[in-house]
UniProtKB/TrEMBL annotation:
Highest taxon in the source lineage: Bacteria
Any one Pfam family match given in the protein's UniProt record, by short name: AP_endonuc_2
Domain Xylose isomerase-like TIM barrel, chain residue ranges per copy: 22-228
Transmembrane segments: none
Key words, A-Z: Isomerase
Entry protein name: Xylose isomerase
Entry GO MF terms: isomerase activity
Amino acid sequence: MNVGLALYTLRDEMEKDFKGTLEKVKQVGYQGVEFAGFGDHSSKEVKAMLEEIGLEPWSSHVPLEKLRNELQSVITYHKEVGIPHIVCPYLTEEERQTKTNYFDLAEELEEIGNQVREAGMVLLYHNHDFEFDTFDDEFGLDILLRNTRTCNMALECDTFWVEYAGHKATEYLAVHENRVPIIHVKDMKDGEIPFAEVGEGKLDIKGIIEAAKAVGTKYFIVEQDVSERSPLESIEISFKNIQSM
């Protein structure tokens, strides 16, 4: 099982010490990483760091505005680093108010995904909970998926947010077979801060992982949006708990 880390979890650490933080991720035992920005580093510098440390670059979150306005430079940078998956990570409130918003976005992502595919990479969409708002009895997320071709856009399923929206991640994964190459593995607890280390919360992590494997998921990426411990301590707890499963 390929277990990686979403570097958004360590965003403050990455800002202070980019390479040193990557080294710590490798020391914990993670095989791959998902980027959420590259600081001021060139693609050659990032590639060299990863090769020296022994980490695989699996994916990268790129803001939608950048995909719209700087797509060719995004493609070039990611290709030079060797990142196979480019992920649209988030929608602003204005972009997700109506069914028409989702139809229009699907049209945009279809075209963006086509260019990403022609460059030899894959475009993915990463969900939160708001994509499970319904429009004529259909999830916003399903409008996006139904109106984009599988070859041009896949899903990075954030299983935490599926559950937070009141749905079963295992069931949602089951209806999207062969379209979910990556999932975010996150756990949930009660309280003001609902994020927990993987294996320390109330979600059926083992069941979610098995359901993801059954639909063809290859990459399992740990993420913790907010940690009440040191984020470095949190990622170690999550990794050890996954290994014990």
